[in-house]
């Protein structure tokens, strides 16, 4: 196989890192600058308004939506990590659900009390959470001799092994994992706060586990997103993009390619571990069947649909992929073409799988930057249309 | 010793079936540089078409129908989807095939439902006695068929003009195109061959001792991935060796399960992946894969 030097004709168009400011037409329109200023001010207010809505939601939304939102947040944390690996460094991983499982079960192991069938260390839950994330990192580190040396899709197949190893351990190491039936997840408590189902009245609204966890999820997601943005915008981020775009050039410029690949793999498994802990807290019981190959494929779908290589894209994609099945299930009676499971028609679960599978294919073809680039693409198209109209 | 020989023969037979799948996988990779994660759904589609056709026609015709259907599906995927993405980053293309796989597998699983289909094949559950060995007829048939198909393929790859253009395209796409080789044909035919081989593999994965074709048969194709990786993704010889390694490992690990009980149940399923990890640790490009050399 002759390698990249011959392929200089086509720079990878997947690179979503193309600076958005490259389009000079994207600036404020010279005419009607008043409207432009209003627009800009609105755009600055938008994130604040979004944050406010997210903070207020537990007071108004019912538990079903909060739970769905929590799944989306956990998925978003995992997807951010996977996007660092796949989107920014160009390394495919099909083993992400393994690290989710390590996080979830690690938390149960560290925080749980021994109950005769399963072992537990009974550590303080917050410490257990940190340790679980570290454990996922260690697991990623153990795989890094392979993760550092293989690239792209090769690594994808190699990580399949992790899924099967994970499933095998989850079903067989019964005193650690509880086997087929899984094990209960200990309640998170720290500084006198307890994320249990005990009803606490906050401003007249009874808060149960979902409402409390909602805020925990927001904090974790915000922290995770900020950290990822920091990584991407600084030296390591540039190095990662260089490895993705041209491995050899990156090596020549002095980037230790294998070490970086290994390190990103570890980082992304720690993100997955954190997502696993949050998922476990929401589920309140971990079962091995959940952490199979289809979960790993779902995470890949999230980052492709949302936008490869961008933190916002991972969050958007995670919201899209996790909320769609919930919405379809919830409104399956009133939606056309969808019927209840077992009646021969398209069940909500199947419909959502078809939908996001097709969305993956379509996103790469029509919207290479993912959902996160959609506003930009639309704006540019609108401006192009306006220009053709005036000229 | 008898047990060992029986397991060895079963392993080789199973391995030759995996080699069929892995071979298709490798051909697609060589000719289009796409790692095709949709291979599982090609296999299941071929199998499903065959068992559906079996309702109306004799066994061999039904098998042929399955093979043709899978080949057509492969060509359709190549033409409708993969061709639109030419020039994109390869790991993104791999994700596109994952998207395809999700769609196809979901739809096929919906069609198949909880049913288990039988090929009603001519071998049934009969056994062959060779001295002290007892082996299912289906395993022998699988071995012979797979060996014949692989032989035909390798000869074609070596001597026909199709094989030459295939190898030329794999060697250097642009030069091959300049020499008048139609890359579109090359990659479409690669997908067709891969689909056809997968459909034959589907037959032997769902006859005795397996119960039949169900919605999870496609998952078995996942074992062809370690086979292809063990051998080296860009080597046809590697696909054969990798297939055999995976088949024998699986048969041995399953056969001697009782002696390996400290590793937990179901170790046979896991063993191929463990072998893959070990091989990758020693040789990141696989046993026969081209080691990457880049001149700067």
TrEMBL record, chain A:
InterPro entries named among the record's database cross-references: ABC_transp_permease, LivM-like
Taxonomic superkingdom: Bacteria
Biased composition (Low complexity): 23-32
Subcellular location: Cell membrane
Transmembrane annotation, as ranges: 45-61, 67-85, 92-112, 124-146, 153-171, 213-232, 263-283, 354-378
Cellular component GO terms held in the UniProt record: plasma membrane
CDD domains (alphabetical): TM_PBP1_LivM_like
Biased composition, class Pro residues, residue ranges: 10-22
Cited Pfam families: BPD_transp_2 (PF02653)
Annotated keywords: Cell membrane, Membrane, Transmembrane, Transmembrane helix
Chain intervals for the UniProt region annotation (Disordered): 1-36
GO MF annotations in UniProt: branched-chain amino acid transmembrane transporter activity
The keyword Transmembrane belongs to this UniProt entry's keyword annotation: yes
Lipid bilayer topology: Multi-pass membrane protein
Protein name listed in UniProt: Branched-chain amino acid transport system permease protein
Species of the source: Streptomyces aidingensis
Lineage: Bacteria, Bacillati, Actinomycetota, Actinomycetes, Kitasatosporales
Automatic annotation (TrEMBL), chain B:
Transmembrane helix found in the keyword field: yes
Signal peptide: none
GO CC term (a single one): plasma membrane
Domain of life of the organism encoding this protein: Bacteria
Compartments, record wording: Cell membrane
Membrane topology: Multi-pass membrane protein
InterPro entries: ABC_transp_permease, BCAA_transport_permease
GO molecular function terms attached to this record: transmembrane transporter activity
Keyword Glycoprotein: no
Single GO biological process annotation from the record: amino acid transport
Keyword annotations of the record: Amino-acid transport, Cell membrane, Membrane, Transmembrane, Transmembrane helix, Transport
Family per record: Belongs to the binding-protein-dependent transport system permease family. LivHM subfamily.
Protein name, per record: Branched-chain amino acid transport system permease protein
Organism in which the protein naturally occurs: Streptomyces aidingensis
């Amino acid at each position: 196989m002759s390698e990249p030097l011959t392929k200089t004709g086509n720079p990878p168009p997947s690179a979503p890192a193309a600076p958005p400011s490259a389009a000079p037409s994207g600036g404020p329109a010279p005419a009607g600058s008043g409207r432009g200023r209003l627009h800009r001010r609105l755009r600055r207010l938008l994130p604040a308004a979004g944050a406010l809505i997210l903070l207020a939601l537990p007071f108004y939304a019912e538990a079903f939506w909060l739970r769905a939102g929590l799944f989306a947040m956990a998925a978003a944390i995992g997807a951010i990590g996977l996007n660092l690996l796949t989107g920014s460094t160009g390394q495919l991983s099909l083993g992400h659900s393994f690290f989710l499982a390590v996080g979830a079960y690690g938390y149960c192991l560290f925080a749980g009390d021994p109950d005769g069938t399963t072992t537990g260390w009974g550590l303080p839950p917050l410490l257990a959470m940190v340790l679980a994330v570290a454990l996922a990192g260690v697991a990623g580190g153990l795989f890094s001799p392979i993760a550092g040396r293989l690239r792209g899709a090769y690594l994808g197949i190699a990580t399949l092994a992790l899924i099967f190893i994970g499933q095998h351990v989850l079903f067989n190491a019964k005193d650690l994992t509880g086997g087929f039936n899984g094990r209960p997840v200990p309640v998170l408590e720290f500084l006198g706060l307890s994320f249990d189902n005990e009803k606490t009245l906050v401003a007249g609204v009874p808060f149960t586990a979902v409402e409390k966890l909602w805020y925990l999820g927001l904090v974790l997601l915000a922290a995770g997103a900020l950290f990822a943005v920091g990584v991407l915008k600084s030296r390591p981020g540039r190095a990662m993009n260089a490895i993705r775009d041209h491995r050899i050039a990156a090596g020549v410029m002095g980037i230790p390619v294998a070490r970086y690949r290994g390190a990103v793999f570890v980082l992304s498994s720690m993100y997955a571990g954190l997502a696993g802990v949050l998922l476990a807290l929401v589920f309140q019981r971990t079962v091995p069947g959940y952490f199979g190959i289809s979960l790993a494929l779902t995470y890949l779908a999230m980052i492709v649909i949302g936008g490869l290589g961008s933190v916002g894209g991972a969050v958007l994609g995670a919201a899209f992929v996790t909320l769609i099945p919930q919405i379809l299930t919830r409104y399956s009676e009133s939606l056309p073409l969808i019927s209840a499971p077992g009646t021969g028609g398209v069940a909500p679960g199947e419909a959502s799988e078809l939908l996001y599978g097709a969305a993956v294919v379509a996103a790469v073809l029509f919207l290479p930057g993912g959902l996160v680039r959609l506003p930009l693409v639309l704006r540019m198209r609108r401006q192009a249309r306006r220009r053709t109209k005036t000229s | 010793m008898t047990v060992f020989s029986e397991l060895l023969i079963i392993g080789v037979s199973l391995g030759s079936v995996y080699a069929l799948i892995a071979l298709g996988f490798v051909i697609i990779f060589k000719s289009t540089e796409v790692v095709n994660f949709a291979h599982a759904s090609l296999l299941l589609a071929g199998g499903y078409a065959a068992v559906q056709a079996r309702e109306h026609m004799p066994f061999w015709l039904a098998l042929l129908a399955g093979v043709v259907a899978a080949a057509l599906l492969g060509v359709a995927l190549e033409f409708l989807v993969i061709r639109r993405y030419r020039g994109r980053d390869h790991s993104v293309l791999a994700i596109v095939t994952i998207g395809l796989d999700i769609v196809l597998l979901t739809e096929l699983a919906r069609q198949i439902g909880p049913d288990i289909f039988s090929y009603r094949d001519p071998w049934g559950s009969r056994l062959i006695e060779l001295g002290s060995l007892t082996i299912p007829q289906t395993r022998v048939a699988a071995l012979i068929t797979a060996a014949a198909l692989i032989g035909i393929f390798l000869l074609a790859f070596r001597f026909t003009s199709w094989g030459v253009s295939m190898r030329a395209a794999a060697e250097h796409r642009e030069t091959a195109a300049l020499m008048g080789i139609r890359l579109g044909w090359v990659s479409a035919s690669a997908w067709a061959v891969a689909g056809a081989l997968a459909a034959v593999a589907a037959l032997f994965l769902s006859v005795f001792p397996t119960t039949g074709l169900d919605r999870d048969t496609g998952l078995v194709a996942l074992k062809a991935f370690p086979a292809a990786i063990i051998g080296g993704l860009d080597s046809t010889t590697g696909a054969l060796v990798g297939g055999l390694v995976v088949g024998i490992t699986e048969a041995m690990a399953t056969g001697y399960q009782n002696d390996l009980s400290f590793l937990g149940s179901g170790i046979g399923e896991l063993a191929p992946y463990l072998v893959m990890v070990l091989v990758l640790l020693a040789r990141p490009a696989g046993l026969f894969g081209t080691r990457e050399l880049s001149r700067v």
